Amino acid sequence: MASATPATIYLKDYTPPAFLISSVDLDVAVFEEHTRVASRLHVQRNPAAADPAAALVLDGEELVLESVSLDGHRLEEGTYTLTSERLTIPGVPDAFVLETVCRIRPQDNTKLSGFYVSKDGCFTQCEAEGFRRITFFIDRPDVMSRYTATLHADRRRYPVLLSNGNLVDLGDEVSSSGAPRHWAKWVDPFPKPSYLFAMVVAKLDVLEDTFVTRSGKHARLAIYVEPGKLDQADFAMQSLKKAMKWDEDVFGLELDLDQYMIVAVGDFNMGAMENKGLNIFNTKYVLARPDIATDIDYQNIDRVVAHEYFHNWTGNRVTCRDWFQLSLKEGLTVFRDQEFGADVYSRSVQRIREVRDLRARQFPEDAGPMAHPVRPQSYMEISNFYTATVYQKGAEVVRMIHTLIGARNFRKGMDLYFQRHDGQAVTTDDFVQAMADASGVDLTHFKRWYDQAGTPTLEVTDTYDSKSKRYTATIRQSCPSTPGRLTKAPFHIPLVLGLVAADGTDIPLQLEGESAAPASTRVLSVTQPEHRFTFVNVAERPVPSLARNFSAPVTLKYDYDVPRLTHLMANDTDAFNRWEAGQRLATTLMLKSVEDLQAGRSFGAPEAFIDAFGRVLADAPRDPAFAAEALTLPSETFIAEQMDVVDPDAIHAVRTRFARKIGEVLADELLAAYRGNAVPGPYSPDAESAGRRALRNLSLAYVMEGGTQAACDLVFEQFSTAGNMTDAIAALLVLADFDCGERTKALESFYEQWKDEPLVIDKWLRAQAISRLPGTLAEVKRLTGHPAFSIRNPNKVYALIGGFSMANHVRFHAADGSGYDFVADQVIALDALNPQVAARIARAFDRWRKFDSIRQAHARAALERIGRTTGLSKDVAEIATKALS
Ligand code: TRP
Ligand code: ZN
User: Fold this and answer.
1) For residue 261, which of 23, 372, 470, 620 sits 20 to 30 Å off, Cα-Cα?
2) How far is the CA of 274 from the centre of ligand 1 (A)?
3) Residue 39 beta carbon below 6 angstroms from any ligand 1 atom
């Protein structure tokens, strides 16, 4: 029996809510068998509603309704209707108090949406539509209310009772059987949408600190973690204080609460959640200690703690009118956490990583069946739209505004945005309008970025006339069609450009008609399908440095040859484009090698390429972190995206051969970089130390590709003696790719050492899942039965199943379809427990149409099997339906 296609919800159908709810008073009692939720709502008809006589419709899911009363009178059955999704009460007055009592069972909540049990207690996740799984409510973000929550639980089992805002009262009580219980009452002074509600009933340890805001307020900061893990919470506390200071300094934004709490939980569908005053975090973005967390983990903690904190203004104080506006808060907040990261770490290295991530995840999304604009126009299940497009491309769109109007105007625009919209639920149009009004720049055309999906291509051709000293660049833009949209109107694209002379310096840029050259890097506005920009007084034929700092999320085409690319690699003043030139060179040569291999010709990395890489390595001491990025080959997934018909085996063979050639030819230099970048002293995750470790560990990986026993001994030696997790896991990842005795030894001893640290075991699972060895699928299958794995824990699923399906291109796309079959099995099994996580894993199939017909047939069969599953969730049904359509 095929499952029905879920209904589609459209942005164009938005209407204001029929009712508003000014206050919510919750009384939640957690018992062994069930949790009782009593709610008291002050409800009023919305003057802006279309129908002044509409019935009251409340969302509610998996709730057992015990009673409902209106203005103190209990409603009889038959005066309301109750379905599996809503409670409808017709004929209500214009203002009234509605009380409901219902029962929920957090211990059975495997979806991790609503109120659920994890190891140390009960936790909430309400974004996007989880609040309706706690109580009946108008569960949409334009209904903003003042919340009071009184929580009751067993005193010994759950000593910690938390909700949003301020603790106003607490006390002891006894259960009917005489067991000691307690209660706590929290009041949140700020009106908020239901998705920002949170409560925690648990046994946790707490790390406390104080932050004095710039206006002199003493705020209590608290991080709650699993008992015994306080020694892993310090870094997150430092991150929080750094973020608070940064938002004051850069945006003038101050904490508006007397206390700010973070709670870490091991079972969590996403990274973290910005609930007002009570953030709930996946443990992996809180817990850190040098022996268990890597440099990247530390950076992620900084970024995610900052991200959730920044949401307090961009998301909470000003929230979204509806879920189509999700990027209003997410794109803007990602942009803010990126800027924070750039200030804390290396700006250019952060930028390179952002772009690598955008190209690895968002570009394919934009070219596949789930392509959607930054502001989607429709969805079946909103949980499926917490995407790279809404987050990462959304941040790029905000960044382009920043580029077009400049940093000072951008700050003015932010100030105006808060001045106008504080306390409101608004749209991305409101945000852009504030930026336009504050800067005086017309952004009407620019707004197409919010409404048109797809990655535009900019094709640049140029001519130079040595007699007139004129250089002309012709720029053509186009955008491929995406589902539901064949043709695209041209975008407003900021193209940041420089012209590099033969001596490596930037040529001053004077456009035709100008009297002087104002700068040597300029922002050109590309708004038409075709443009021509002529620069005068250009003394020699330059090499163009295009889209410096990745000034727009586009694919840039220009016919660079090898000498020009190596010139940019060596000389471009824009660090991003130095990196970009190297990637372009590698990509071109790898694609050429793939063709050679397919045609049965000899293939591999040419000498010119190894020389260019060698020069980057020689220059590495100047900036090891940058060198590590520049010496990393484009990923197999990235190369695949550049091909019409993907050949994963050929790509894998080529990339491996390139790496091996680097390891062989540059063996001495790599060993020297390995030795020269040892970081002395106690571990610190600062940018400089982390950069040296990144280069050192990359060098080690290349040395190992060279294939000597000495190399293998060196890797194993690092594995055995590493003083921090960064170095240990780097060595383990290298060993996981080689079929040698050391591999087994290392994997076994790593497990023995870390079996009680779930976050470290996630790394161990992932290392095996992404191994390039041919036996990987069999190992992954075996690991699904290992005690270290649990299909109920999202981190474990993302590590093992996600690692295999999203980060092991060659094995997931095995020609016999075995990878697809396995992942389909996992999606089906997961869907019965946790549809949000299942749908994320199902996205691994997105690009199936880019492969050969044999692989396509296997992928189609796997997707169809998923689609046929009885009782399939909306979440997975949307992914499968779109992939197949
Ligand atoms: N708003 C969260 C963020 O900071 C995202 C999020 C957390 C989320 N948990 C979720 C989204 C569960 C959907 C479902 O980005
Ligand atoms: Zn966010």
Assistant:
1) 23
2) 8
3) no
In one-letter notation, the amino acid at residue 13 is D
- Taking the C-alpha atoms of residue 188 and residue 859, their distance in angstroms, rounded to an integer, is 49
| pLDDT score recorded for residue 79 | 97
32 DSSP assignment: S
Determine the distance separating the centroid of ligand 2 and the alpha carbon of 309, expressed in angstroms. 9
Residue-wise pLDDT for 715-765, tens only, equals: 999 999 999 999 999 999 999 999 999 999 999 999 999 999 999 999 999
pTM of the model: 0.99
Q: Which residues contact 6 (CB under 8 A, 6 or more apart)?
A: 380, 381, 874, 877, 878, 881
Q: What are the residues whose beta carbon lies below 5 Å from ligand 2 (ion)?
A: 330, 333
What DSSP state is assigned to residue 106?
G
Query: Beta partners for 551?
Result: none
For 277: left if phi > 0, alpha if psi spans -120 to 50, otherwise beta; the answer is left
**Closest alpha carbon to 67 in 55, 54, 56, 80:** 80
What does the DSSP assignment read for 752-816?
Answer: HHHTT-HHHHHHHHHHHHT--STTHHHHHHHHHTSTT--TT-HHHHIIIIIHHHHH-HHHHT-TT
Contact criterion met (CB below 8 Å) for 746 and 768: no
Asked whether 283 lines ligand 1 (CB < 6 A), one says: no
pLDDT digits (tens, 9 = 90+) for 425-436: 999 999 999 999
Strand partners, 475: 460, 531
Nearest to 729 by CA among 706, 757, 687: 757
Cis peptide before 184 (omega within 30 of 0): no
Helix (H, G, I), strand (E, B) or coil at 468: coil
3-state secondary structure of 38: strand
Q: Whose CA is nearest to atom 14 of ligand 1?
A: 127
The confidence score (pLDDT) of residue 857 equals: 99
Q: What is the DSSP letter of 195?
A: G
Minimum-distance ligand to the CA of 314? 2
Tokens 């409340």 identify what position? Answer: 58
Tokens of 218: 């003493």
Interior/surface letters 799-826, b for 16+ CB within 10 angstroms, e for the rest: bbbbbbbbbbbbbbbbeebebbbbbbbb
Tokens 């967390």 correspond to: 293
| Residues labelled as active-site residues | 308
Sites in the chain below the pLDDT cut of 50: 1-2
Out of 109, 118, 125, 319, mutate this one to test ligand 1's pocket (max ligand atoms within 8 Å of CB): namely 125
Q: Is 381's C-beta closer than 6 angstroms to any atom of ligand 1?
A: no
Residue whose CA is at the smallest distance from ligand 1 atom 3: 273
At a CB cut-off of 8 Å and minimum separation 6, what does 97 contact? Answer: 40, 41, 42, 43, 70, 71, 72
* Residue ID of nearest Cα to ligand 1 atom 1: 273
- SS3 for 528? coil
Q: Which two tokens stand for residue 695?
A: 């280069």
The whole-number pLDDT of residue 4 equals 73
Kindly state if the Cβ of 337 falls inside 6 Å of ligand 1.
no
Q: Among all ligands shown, which has an atom nearest to the Cα of 323?
A: 1
Block residue for tokens 């002891």? 172
CB distance 454 to 371 below 8 Å = yes
Nearest-angstrom CA–CA distance, 334 and 226: 28
Six token digits for residue 442: 């017309």
- Nearest 5°: phi and psi at 12? -65, -15
Alpha-helical regions (H) of 268-346: 295-310, 326-344
Beta-strand relationship, 378-379 and 555-557: unpaired
Counting atoms of ligand 1 from 1, which one is nearest the CA of 330?
A: 15
Let me know the angle formed at the C-alpha of 574 by 569 and 579, rounded to the nearest 5 degrees.
Answer: 40
